Amino acid sequence: MPKGKARDDGKTPYQIEVPEEYVLRDEVRWLKTEDAKLFRFLKEVMNKIEPAYVSTYPPSECGIATFTRDVLTSVAKYTPFSKPTVVAVKRREEIEPYGRVVRAQIMRDDRQSYIDAAKFLNKSTVDIISIQHEYGIYGGTQGEYILDFVRDLEKPAVATLHTVLLNPNEDQKRVLQELAELCQVVVVMVRMGRQILTDTYGIDPKKVTVIQHGVPNVHRVSTNAVKRALAISDRKIISTFGLINRGKGIEIAIEAVARVVEKYPNALYLVLGETHPGVRAWEGEAYRNDLLETVRRLNLENHVRFNNRFLSLSELVRYLCATDVYVTPYLNKDQICSGTLAYALGCGKAVVSTPYLYAEEVLGDGRGVLVDFRSPEAMADAIIDLFDNTSKKEQIESLAYKYGRRTAWFNVAIDYLDLFHRVMQAAGVRKDEVVEAKK
Amino acid sequence: MMEMDLQISTKTLEGIPVIGLSGEVDAYTCSRFRDTMIDVIEEGNANIVVSMKDVEYIDSSGLGTLVGGLKRASEKGGKIAVVCSSPQIRKVFEITGLEKVFPLFRSERDAALELAREVVT
Q1: Shortest CB distance from B96 goes to which of A6, A31, A47?
Q2: Min CA distance, B35 vs chain A (Å)?
Q3: Region A224-228 average pLDDT
Q4: Which of A5, A129, A373, A377 has a C-alpha 20 to 30 A away from that of A95?
Q5: Once rounded to an integer, what is the mean pLDDT over residues A138-150?
Q6: A12 found inside a domain
Q7: A77 and B28: CB-CB below 8 Å?
Q8: Record: contact A414-B91, CB cut-off 8 A
Q9: Are A163 and A273 contained in the same domain?
Q10: Which residues of chain B approach chain A closer than 8 Å at the C-beta?
Q11: Domain encompassing residue A344
Q12: What is the pLDDT of residue A434?
């Protein structure tokens, strides 16, 4: 059987769980009592870098919060002698029951709290600061308060950019340029991001590094077997997941499904995820209601199903593994990152997508199918083509899975650790000196 | 059924057992690696070569499994040497600092010879 090809023996029951991987931390903890000499040796030689992450953080419902938790957790699994820190960004009126890893908070619209957070980190044992950047999560004009924070930092910092606009306004450009100037390195998730930063923002390409979006560690499973477990084995599954907002273009996919069911009456489109909390606060469920109206108008009640709630990682992976074709009909060409598309690749799924910047790059070289923006016809044709051509679909799935494996969180964590290490070296900070200074 | 992308083999070189791994050593597969390592140690071997020259990816579970194996081996006065040629795998050991715990070699024979020499001396 070729590597990466999912198996199905036709009877295996399915219980997909994404395994935790705390084996290294557990083994080291046990050594403390079982083999003190080996424990001391490991403590002496293992990487003890202590990063701090500045970002929104769960339980805040936000893609960047989830991303930060995933990076932090993945890095911590390799560094059992380190204590990660989060400086969580929130609105003053929000009450978030954060875990202990959150050691300080920045009030989004309170400029002084950015300066206080920098002071806190300067005095702490933290070695390096990883800033998650998206204009909207920080206060001030285009999130400029984050610059106050970085200016007052006395430790090296790297910024991961979740939005890189092709046509920024003056303020957006200024904020990103200054952030890049103040940080040792900026991270983007696709090569195109580096190109835009160089061409549009005039940022030195040597300052930009590419680290891909991480995905859960999922080994390939048979789509049919997972469908059986979900009692949808007679359906052709199309899916989209993530926090719902108007930029997702789900109405385009619904119109595409109307065409698909003419040839495949068993097609079922799953829209997985709740409305983005920010959107809900602004317009309630207006967008979802519009989508429901579209479903009714097109008589698709038996072909479109919404799952309007938070899905655990295991649930999400189960639905993704049951998917025949994953779709991202997003409307914004500028989108430089999509966690949901990354996850679909990680599960080895054939993807049909509009050509926003992230999709254009990660689905290149035959790893997916790109169709025009706002074209239900093109999207329907692409889905039908994949349903018709099993071998073509399997070829795409294999390429997608291979690409996705490299971006599993356990690999991405090593990329971040390597980056942190290089930045500290370049900044003239040696961890053993840091350790000495802390004594 | 999850696909288990790890093949495990065993052989002896220069009197030292060599556990050959091929594929991915991660949270899904590391329990089989641990069982093999325990079997080899309980057969009376203290020194082991773990060959990762055909390993594509390793996660922290794989590293933890090695540390657990080292604890058992060191109880018998032994060591574990690791063979790896892939830059990605080597980087994992280097960046975590575990290359100072598990001596890294480019070939199984070099690793086995080194451990055999230590047994003699």
Answers
A1: A47
A2: 14
A3: 91
A4: A129
A5: 98
A6: no
A7: no
A8: yes
A9: no
A10: 1-5, 23-24, 26-28, 30, 56-57, 59-65, 67-68, 70-71, 74-75, 88, 91-92, 95-98, 100-101
A11: 223-406
A12: 42
Residues of A in contact with B74 (CB under 8 A): 35, 38
* pLDDT higher than threshold 70 for residue A436: no
What residues contact residue A399 under an 8 Å CB cut-off, 6+ apart?
A: A365, A366, A367
- Do A233 and A210 fall within a single domain? no
Chain B residue with CA closest to A38: the answer is B71
Per DSSP, helices labelled H in A264-312 are: 277-283, 286-297
On whether both A161 and A259 belong to a single domain, the answer is no
Asked if the Cβ–Cβ distance from B74 to A78 is below 8 Å, we say no
pLDDT of residue B1: 35
Q: Is the pLDDT of residue A3 over 50?
A: no
Residue A189 maps to a domain: yes
Do A395 and A415 fall within a single domain?
A: no
A244: which DSSP letter? B
pLDDT of residue A277: 79
Residues from chain B that touch A7, judged by Cβ atoms under 8 A, are: 1, 3
Separation CA A387–CA A251 (nearest Å): 21
Residues A376, A421: one domain?
no
- ipTM of this complex: 0.94
H-helix or E-strand spanning residue A55: strand A51-55
The reply to whether residue A27 touches residue B28, judged by beta carbons under 8 angstroms, is: no
Residues A188 and A169 in one domain: yes
Question: Both A434 and A380 in a single domain?
Answer: no
Tokens of B117: 């020499």
- Is pLDDT at A349 greater than 80 in this prediction? yes
Domains and CATH numbers, chain B: 6-115 (3.30.750.24)
3-state helix, strand, coil in chain A (%, to 5): 50, 15, 35
The CATH number for A398's domain is 3.40.50.2000
Q: Which residues contact A162 (CB under 8 A, 6 or more apart)?
A: A63, A64, A67, A132, A133, A134, A336, A337
